[in-house]
Amino acid sequence: MTESATPAVVMYTDGACKGNPGRGGWGVWMVSGPHEKEMWGGELMTTNNRMELTAVIEALKVLKRPCQVVIYTDSEYVRKGITEWITGWKRRGWKTADNKPVKNDDLWRKLEDMAAQHQVDWRWVKGHAGDPGNERADGLANRGAAEAR
């Protein structure tokens, strides 16, 4: 597939949690050319980090073919986890540097598999700082938390 034939998708993802653990939500706003999509969901008893990871996983799930993807997240946990830390976790059998089990390894494994199907550019954006895409994803994540059942 040539570079020009690979669709470009921009995704803003965010997670929210009321209490940690507590009622949580995830939100995604994605754009590809003239097309936009908003998604959100939530869980009653979860953590903020699980919601941050779920947002990215849910966003990648909707892609029907390999894409060039730019993912904006305000979570350094997500960005550094998938671009830096995961290599060591896997080498150590899904243990942290201090030999503890990696939290959320089920989601990390799923995210790694899904991201491998695409060309992903992981970008961090400061949360709650006025970035329009991040603010929109945050609003969707809070909606997901509010609607969680």
Description:
The protein has helices at 48-61, 76-91, 105-115, 132-147, and strands at 8-19, 22-32, 35-46, 68-73, 119-124. By secondary structure, it is of the alpha/beta class. It has one domain (3-147): Nucleotidyltransferase, domain 5 (2-Layer Sandwich), CATH 3.30.420. The mean pLDDT is 95.
From the structure above, extract its key features.
149 residues, alpha/beta, Nucleotidyltransferase, domain 5, 4 helices, 5 strands, 32% strand
Q: Secondary structure elements and their pairing?
A:
Elements: E1 8-19, E2 22-32, E3 35-46, H1 48-61, E4 68-73, H2 76-91, H3 105-115, E5 119-124, H4 132-147
Parallel strand pairs: 1-4, 4-5
Antiparallel strand pairs: 1-2, 2-3
Helix pairs in contact: 1-3
